[in-house]
């Protein structure tokens, strides 16, 4: 039985089916929403009319799972209770409203995440929207299309907040982004975040930083009219979008007695086992090991959910697979600006007890003389003395950000920046300068490591 | 003293200067050509009017080295003899024609490479051009601009051959490429090469495969008129371009008694020392260790030359640096087609004694629903049983090929395809599908490794 029919759950179901046929293993998946396996990450682009129509975001429909994989997917079915002792769940059919008990032998908990909603007055008002599910996206589009909206306030300047702000701005709405931190994209270092802030403002989006929302004010008809901040600002708004990210949706698991970790996610081992016999978990609701800090972290990303679901499914199917953890790789595009990160930010490195040096390299994405060469800045953080690469961040224009994957692969393998400098990376004028920007950053970081060593010795 | 004023030599000079001031170390560099530090890889793009003017290909002029770095660069000065016992060279000043002896304490041999010229009749005729130096490029451009040329035959379908063919085709010349192999780009596997062949033909370039040039015929005025092939074809040509690649230019070093390796390049250790006291070498003229095959190979690439020169210069300057070898990473773009490789081709893997499995993944460069998503095919070769990634090749359109660097970094670190599958690579719809194409290929390759294991066990 699979609880939750998105990336993690359906990957698990598909992989288990590949290894065990319908005679050997019945698979039923309950999904409280109306859709399975869609790209939540694509929602801002659909809102912004960059992609469409909506159904293109859906990777696989319930019928496909049913007909092709013999997986019984029931949408609009919410699991309300898991009884581990009795090995059964209580499911509510959203259409009929009826509840019924369903037995299971093995279970995958893939309940995903829920948007963070700050506990401020007005947060439940009409005109306050999340952007987590396709349903959220539909409601948001309907409002934007209604003609009632001119001014949009986005609360939260992380990935999703900025992506949705770009979407509403692109569609001609006056857009303001409100964020508590001094720079947006809080998982990036402030010196990189300030680049992003400039780019956002250059686009014509209003960016209010170092300010928390304290209340959402409504009119007599109950609709939002403005957002109040701790600093006393009043930001007029016909529509408020919550772009504060998500937290793991673990209420069901928690009530059932499935152990949660300090991060708030479900604790799993490398094979995605929860520790409760026959119960697996995958996707946004689980915690993962960060390979650099050793910390348990929750990272809500479709790519992890797919991998974790695959691992759970292979193991349920009798195979052997493990999920080896994360290193915090992420990428986004805001208008023409590409930003990416991997490993530890400076703040995370400090919190993990690392001492480090940093270095920047400003370069171009192609040979400087080649048409389309765009600026790229690579920042690297390396451990003092060992020179081990701890983190990298990239800001740039076209063709900049995907280079983060080289840094991610280097970090994964615990390379030093000196070793990175030796890497045999591809070179041709349409693709990079003769020293790839990643190599230039590694060279600078290696210089910084050596200088630090010399200073410590002298 | 530096012999050869391009990437390898001038990187060495600059790095040595950074560590040892002009009072401590005099640096003189002799370059037989008229330019220093230019991008040879950029020449086809300059010929094709993609980049220009010519001087944009020059990274640093002799004056800059002289004025800013106190490096005495003498262009149009050819070193004709190295006398290791007497620690002096004989230099010929191209302007005056005079020869003179110059002493040295330490030397960097950075004589680069020379184009391969098959020993066939007519190879020295007017109208037969190389594309190795900026001077070659100038001569070729002058001919193309003369109005005398309509039909171009390019001998050799490797990187440089295809790049120059695209350039002449782009400028409206009827272009034919002749290659001895059944598919172009011989360092790629034939199944990838056949993709390239189709793309070349689709562009309107004539591609004659499995045919060697046997003679270049000339008219009464001495100019070329056609190329004869072993199969009896006659390819009409007003201009012939040699795109057969290069071999190390080691005549000078060889006569001086500096040891050469079986690959034909100068033997160096990891610090770029030739084994002759005080004599270093860097760039296209040296051989490197291939980290996968263990073989000594010569790879003429600006990126290696820069790194090797840097290493030599640091060591000469009293520091410590090493060049860790190569794994055969390369990338090129032919019209809209991007192709890249790293590690061993199937042929190379066999020659090195590896048994292996292969797998393909066809995917898109962005989320399938995202505008601009372009096709990408990733091929991976993994060692039987161990699953170690041995090689990867990528063919695709926009934003495809640079992903080879992830494979290169994985190979560098001796990862298995199963480990690659676990990598935390960046994901967002504008940058990749939720499973990056590299991960899909790794998944397929891992399946192939497991299937092979099962078959061997069963």
Would you kindly provide a written description of the structure presented here, covering whatever features stand out?
Two copies of one chain form a homodimer. By secondary structure, chain A is an alpha/beta fold. The first copy, chain A, has helices at residues 7-19, 43-47, 62-69, 134-145, 159-170, 190-203, 251-256, 302-316, 346-351, 404-412, 417-422, 437-457, and strands at residues 2-3, 28-31, 72-75, 77-83, 88-93, 99-103, 107-109, 113-115, 128-129, 151-155, 174-178, 206-208, 213-218, 224-229, 234-236, 239-242, 246-248, 279-281, 288-289, 296-297, 330-334, 337-343, 356-364, 375-383, 389-396. Chain A folds into three domains: 2-41 and 51-114 and 247-316, FAD/NAD(P)-binding domain, CATH 3.50.50.60; 117-244, 3-Layer(bba) Sandwich (FAD/NAD(P)-binding domain), CATH 3.50.50; 330-457, FAD/NAD(P)-binding domain (3-Layer(bba) Sandwich). In chain A, helix 1 (7-19) runs parallel beside helix 8. The first copy, chain A, is globular. The mean pLDDT of chain A is 95. The interface between A and B is large, with 66 and 66 residues.
User: Average pLDDT of chain A, to the nearest integer?
Assistant: 95
SS-based structural class of chain A?
alpha/beta
Specify the biggest β-sheet of chain A: 5 strands, parallel
The greatest interface here is:
A-B, 66 and 66 residues
> So how many helices of chain A?
12
The CATH superfamily title of the largest domain in chain A:
FAD/NAD(P)-binding domain
Q: What's the number of structural domains of chain A?
A: 3
Q: Please give the radius of gyration of chain A in angstroms.
A: 24 Å
CATH names the topology of the largest domain in chain A as: FAD/NAD(P)-binding domain
Taken as a percent bin, the fraction of beta residues of chain A is 25-35%
Distance between the termini of chain A: 64 Å
Oligomer: homodimer
Give the uncertain stretches of chain A in residue-range form: none
- Overall spatial form of chain A: globular
- What is the CATH class of the largest domain in chain A? Alpha Beta
Can you give the helix content of chain A as a percent range? 25-40%
């Amino acid at each position: 039985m699979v609880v939750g029919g998105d990336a993690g759950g359906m990957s698990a179901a598909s992989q288990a089916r590949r290894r065990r046929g319908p005679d050997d293993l019945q698979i039923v998946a309950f999904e409280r929403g109306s859709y399975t396996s869609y790209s939540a990450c694509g929602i801002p682009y659909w809102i912004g009319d960059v992609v469409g129509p909506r159904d293109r975001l859906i990777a696989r429909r319930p019928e496909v799972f049913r007909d092709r994989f013999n997986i019984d997917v029931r949408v609009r079915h919410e699991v309300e209770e898991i009884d581990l002792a009795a090995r059964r769940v209580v499911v509510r059919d959203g259409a009929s409203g009826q509840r019924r008990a369903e037995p299971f032998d093995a279970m995958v908990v893939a309940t995903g995440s829920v948007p963070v909603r700050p506990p401020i007055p007005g947060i439940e008002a009409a005109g306050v929207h999340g952007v987590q599910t396709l349903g959220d996206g539909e409601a948001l589009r309907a409002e934007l299309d209604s003609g009632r909206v001119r001014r949009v306030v986005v609360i939260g300047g992380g990935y999703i907040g900025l992506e949705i702000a770009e979407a509403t701005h692109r569609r001609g709405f006056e857009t303001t982004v409100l964020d508590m931190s001094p720079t947006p994209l809080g998982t990036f270092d402030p010196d990189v975040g300030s680049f992003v802030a400039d780019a956002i403002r250059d686009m014509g989006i209003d960016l209010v930083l170092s300010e928390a929302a304290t209340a959402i004010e409504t009119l007599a008809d109950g609709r939002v009219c403005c957002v109040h901040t701790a600093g006393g600002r009043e930001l007029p708004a016909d529509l408020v979008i919550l772009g504060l990210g998500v937290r793991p949706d673990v209420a069901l698991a928690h009530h059932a007695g499935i152990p949660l970790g300090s991060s708030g996610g479900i604790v799993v081992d490398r094979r995605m086992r929860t520790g409760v016999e026959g119960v697996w978990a995958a996707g946004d609701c689980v915690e993962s090991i960060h390979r650099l800090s050793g910390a348990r972290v929750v990272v809500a990303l479709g790519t992890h959910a797919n991998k974790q679901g695959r691992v759970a499914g292979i193991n349920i199917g009798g195979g052997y697979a493990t999920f080896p953890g994360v290193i915090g790789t992420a990428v986004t595009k805001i208008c023409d600006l590409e930003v990416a990160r991997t490993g530890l930010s400076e703040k995370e490195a400090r919190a993990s007890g690392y001492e480090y040096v940093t270095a920047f390299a400003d370069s171009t994405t192609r040979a400087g003389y080649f048409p389309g060469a765009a600026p790229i800045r690579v920042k690297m953080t390396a451990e003092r003395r060992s020179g081990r690469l701890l983190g990298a961040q990239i800001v740039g224009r076209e063709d900049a950000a995907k280079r983060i994957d080289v840094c991610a692969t280097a970090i994964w393998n615990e390379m030093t920046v000196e070793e990175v400098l030796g890497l045999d990376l591809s070179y041709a004028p349409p693709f990079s300068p003769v020293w790839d920007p990643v190599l230039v950053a590694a060279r600078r970081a290696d210089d910084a490591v050596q200088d630090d060593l010399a200073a410590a010795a002298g």
